[in-house]
Amino acid sequence: MNVMIAARGALRFGDLLGNIPAGVAQGIIWGIMALGLYITYRLLEVSDLSVDGTFTTGGAVTVMLILAGWNPFAAVFVAFVAGMAAGTCTGLLHTLLGIPAILSGILTQFALWSVNLAIMGFAANKALNVSKYTLMISSRNIQMAIITGLIIAAVLIGIMYWYFGTEHGSAMRATGCNPEMAKAQGINISVMKVIGLALSNGIVAFSGGLMAQFQGFADINMGKGAIVIGLAAVIIGEVAGDAIAGKKLNFAGRLSFVVVGGILYYLTVVIVLWLRLNSNMLKFFTAIIVAVFLAIPNLTNYSKNSFSRAGKNSLKYVNGKEN
Amino acid sequence: MSTMLELTGVNKTFNPGTINEKQALLDINLKMEDGDFVTVIGGNGAGKSTMLNAVAGVWPIDTGSIIIGGENVTALPDYKRAHLIGRVFQDPMMGTATTMQIEENLALAARRGKTRTLRWQVTDAERAEYRERLKILGLGLEDRLTQKVGLLSGGQRQALTLLMASLRKPKLLLLDEHTAALDPKTAKKVLEITREIVEKDHLTALMVTHNMRDAIQTGNRLIMMYEGRILYDISGEEKKNLTVEDLMHKFEEASGEEFSDDKSLLSK
Fold it and tell me: Domain coordinates of chain B in residue numbers?
């Protein structure tokens, strides 16, 4: 069996078009997840790996509560709170116990594997009977799913724009930008980091709850690689934002492009699948996409600022002639 | 007149019990009255910045007490002392949040030591006040309120940090070699602004410097430190008549060492 190609047959453009809406809907949900990641990755300047666990936690909590007869809106709210609790754990491991942030996230993620299984009654996945419940968002109705997803993203962007413009939110941004300065202004940076990690993971768990509803089940592996997909959305969104709107984009605009980044990422996934590439190779391609986009700012900098170019320029001085 | 800063028997040893053990502060006693502008001079490792960091609460002291504006702050970490203290650092990158706007930085400083609420970070009335205050600096920053601080030069940042440190009148202003990283012309300008702000707002300030001439020409009192101790404390008329040569002589006399620019890294 060919490693790269999953199945043979002619590529039909119609198939690609048919799969785009579902890709957009999932992209929006990952974009919402990336909004949560943006708080830690961009504003607090912490790489938080707990999200792989909290995304699943959100999905598991949501599905179990809906199965128990809860309203889906109430269920994702509880998922949000559960994510905040997990984020608080990461924050306390980091600030109270002095464990490096990246390791704190890994520890939380590791522990959440067991917690998530326990939430699902020690089953690796739990399905929702989609026709039995009225869900917020479902792959049964892609058009509605896209509209609902966009409304949720817009409301979330509005809330984030407001919060990070308040005294409290600006103190959090100062903590990420310059902790020494923040302390000199009387800001308790430990508390700020814990709150930031809690909010971030709350949003990630919330998006996990949306994803579980969309696909109709929660799976212990659904959050695997969430950090990478979230980063892909943040970075693709920033590159796209700079290219389309320039550097003048305000905070709400930049957040909007994070969601756009999630959509763009998922469309590449749709194309990869349409090309009949083996979907088991998807993580490999995702890693390449993220690495390329992470490298773009550095590569453009190298091209402007390289030793080899300086060396070439130096030749005309060394050789004493203009050429 | 009330006492603004009182250090009593302050000791600090770094890395105790190790090969790197260093007695950084030795029985420091210092009292500053309201409106005092004290300059601190001394060589590398003399304990100048260490004393400032002890006052700011960067780490806890071993023994002694620190009282600022009548409040015993010995047990408090830096962020809990911030309501009493304005700080300007040596590194122009340290005092501001570079990815944030000028007005956002000022708004953060205007709420120094206060509870951060969910109110909007900067009001129109504040914005007008910031514009007026920035005008006094004469750097044209009043027209750049919404620009990111990362776009400012080192000198502009230090001037802005000074303004931030004094925006909410502190009981004590700590200046830690805040002109040392600037070119001579900019350093002079920033020092001028420092003098103006301290005088206008009637601040109590403690300024560390490497530059003997600046130390002599600035403030009403001068302290010389050596190996974690205060060697020499001079104020009033005596300080006004002080020369760089006097200072070098005092240094040799008190330390028992020959003065050497290399060793102390002081500049005239």
Answer: 1-77+204-268
Paired residues of B86 in beta bridges: B173
In a domain, A307, yes or no: no
| Interface test mutation site (partner A, options B49, B73, B79, B101, max chain A beta carbons within 10 A) | B79
pLDDT per residue as tens, chain B (268 positions): 689 999 999 999 999 999 999 999 999 999 999 999 999 998 888 999 999 999 999 999 999 999 999 999 999 999 999 999 999 999 999 999 999 999 999 999 999 999 999 999 999 999 999 999 999 898 999 999 999 999 999 999 999 999 999 999 999 999 999 999 999 999 999 999 999 999 999 999 999 998 999 999 999 999 999 999 998 899 988 888 888 888 888 888 777 765 555 444 555 5
Chain B residues with CB inside 8 Å of A187's CB?
A: 79, 82, 108, 116
A4 domain residue, yes or no: no
* Contact criterion met (CB below 8 Å) for A202 and A84: yes
Contact A57, A174 (CB under 8 A): no
Percent of chain B whose predicted confidence (pLDDT) is above 90? 82
Cβ contacts of B111 on chain A, cutoff 8 Å: 167, 185-186
d(CA B256, CA A144): 85
Q: To which CATH superfamily is domain B1-77+204-268 assigned? A: P-loop containing nucleotide triphosphate hydrolases (3.40.50.300)
Inter-chain CB proximity A177 and B79 less than 8 Å: no
Using CB atoms, which residue from A168, A174, A186 is nearest to B82? A186
Smallest Cα distance from B94 to chain A, Å: 6
Q: Is the CB of residue A260 less than 8 Å from the CB of residue A317?
A: no
Residue A274: predicted pLDDT: 85
Residue B145 near residue B177, CB atoms below 8 Å: no
Residue A196 falls within a domain, yes or no?
yes
The predicted pLDDT at position A78 comes to 98
The Cα–Cα gap between B202 and B169 comes to 9
pTM score of the predicted model: 0.91
**Residue A317 domain-assigned?**
no
Query: Residue-wise over A41-71: b if at least 16 C-beta within 10 A, else e?
Result: bbbbebebbbbbbbbbbbbbbbbbbbbeebe
Q: Which domain holds residue A40?
A: 13-297
Cβ contacts below 8 Å, chain A against chain B, sum to 85
Write out the residues of chain A at the interface with chain B, using a CB-CB cutoff of 8 A.
163, 165-171, 173-174, 177-178, 180-189
- Out of B87, B111, B114, the one facing A184 most closely (by C-beta) is B87
Nearest-CB residue to A174 (from B80, B82, B100): B100
Q: How many structural domains compose chain A?
A: 1
Q: Are strands B3-14 and B63-68 parallel, antiparallel or unpaired?
A: antiparallel
Enumerate residues 6+ apart whose C-beta is below 8 A from B65. B6, B7, B8, B9, B10, B72, B74
Contacts of A180 in chain B (CB under 8 A): 89, 94
pLDDT of residue B262: 46
Let me know the angle formed at the C-alpha of B260 by B257 and B265, rounded to the nearest 5 degrees: 120
State the alpha helices, DSSP H only, in chain B. 48-56, 78-81, 102-110, 124-137, 154-167, 184-200, 212-217, 236-240, 244-255, 261-264
